Fold:
Amino acid sequence: MNIDELADMVRNLLAEYVVNVEIGKDLVHVEVKEENIIEAAKRMKEAGFDHVKDVTAIDYPKEGVIKIFYHLSSYSKKDLSRYIVGLGYSIPRDKNSVPSLYGVWTSADFQEREVYEGFGIVFEGHPDLRPLLLAPTVAELKPLRKDFIVKEEPIFKK
Amino acid sequence: MSARISGVSGKVGFNDLKQLPGFWTRKLGKDLYEVFIGPQHPGSGHMRIIIRVDGDVIVEADPDMGYVHRTMEKLGEGREWIKGIPLYERMAIHDACNVTLPYVEAVEKLLGIEPPVRAKYLRVLLCEINRIAAFLYGFGIFGVFVGHSTMYMWPFGDREVWVELADWLTGARLTHSYPIFGGVRRDVPEGFTDSLRKAIRYMRKRLEEYRKIYVDNPVIRARLEDVGVIPRNLAIELGITGPNLRASGVEYDVRYNAPYEVYDELDFEIPVFQEGDSLARVWQRVEEIKQSLHILEQVADWLDKHKGEQIMHDRFWKTAPPLYKKVFQETGRVKLVPAFAILKVPKGKAYARAETARGEISYYVESNGANKPYRVRIVSASARNAIVFKYILPGHRVMDLPTIYGSIDYFPPEADR
Structure:
């Protein structure tokens, strides 16, 4: 299965939920509406996408949105494992509560915690949402958002 | 301040007992204790596992990671593309080529270039050398965990063979920064492939000795067999990766499922075990070393047949000053061309994966056309394997914890990024 066929397959599978499909390098990004994400995720899992490779959020301050993507692949079906499918949605930057997909993919457990600590997005329904790598005081700063600027000190002070 | 580690004033209770270094324990209720293992524990590395025990049966485990978190995703956003390579290889310094390779590949995909074939073979060469060295490192640590000090000394000694080879090839024992966009930094030195073949012969012999003294040792088998079993469906559900996944009967290896570099041209097998216990995970690694040795033989033959071919893509190589080309002709070294410092990567999204020693590492790279990445999301193998502790440890006894921890080959710096 080449990448276009995979994109078509996912487009047909998610049919009415699809907002946008984008083909990257070895990657298909499928955007759905936030309210449909759990149903879309269930359909993807039934189709054979059995685990989450990573959960990531990307901050776009100019557009005022954050995109959350679950990068999926399959251990049980070989033809689905050649390329990665990213299932995701956009939320406004000031919104901080989204549904958790822990109930669909257990493998999203630690990954959602990482997005939570980096972006301050609360995954509703996650059973154990705490910062994973960062200290709670650092996580409060939402360090992975673009408006958190890292100030680097020069090696030699002027 | 009293000298007591933790104390309750007045009566002598549980909390007055002297505690083992690296352990901190408190009572939660009748028969239920909370034990903090690490992060200064000699075995666990830079990680803490909080377990709750009933008697000595673990009822709950909470892996507490992040003690060596270096904010690589955020740091990567503030650095030029080429600076990402020495940054990301700090995740697993003895597995540096495997860990940085998908980053290089993702950028190459965005640039739309492909390295010359010889460069691909050289990348595979270092990847497999790194893989063997990382497995031997894991064996050594595991040996300490189960109290087998010979199995600590031997693999660490044999690992030196592979580290020295990597040193000879790249100029650095660890953190080689070997693959760069469009190629590799150096060609093989004179006489390298002969030494490589010697090392392969030596390693085959040693693996047989490992089997006799360690893997088939009745004492070790009694400790490892049927401990920490991860059933196939649970392995898939938890999304674990690497040798741990294959030891549970899942046929998945990035080199096979989504071949990169020249892995689709090489002949090798993906070993799969069905048992899913700690012993199977050790056997899995022994078998994978054998396959890596088989790959290295083929790579050595190919490199001998195709001497003097280009190892750098034209897009960068043609910008090199004449002096650089002269140095390459004479010594086989490629100096970093100035074009890398001002490199701008076209807008787009790319995803690249590689099979490292501990499993799959994946990079999501997004560029907005600037001289720095817009977003790099890295999920390393250990980061995905950490979930095992939470779901597999409950039900085991405390004495099984080092066995499971060691057999997963968990590496905290890689997991924390």
